[in-house]
Amino acid sequence: MRFVSTPPPLSIPTTTYEEIRTRFDRLTPKQRAVCLLMVGGTMSKNIADRLGMSINTVKTHRNEIFRKMGASSLLDLVRQIDHLRTTSDTEESASPALILPGTNEEGAADSRPLRVIVVEDHAALREAIVTGLATLGYQARGVEDGAALDRELVLAPADIVVLDIGLGRYRENGFSIAARLRRQVRCGIVMVTARGELDARIRGLEEGADAYLVKPIDFAELSAVMNSIMRRIKPVSPVA
Question: What is the pTM of this model?
Answer without folding.
Answer: 0.54
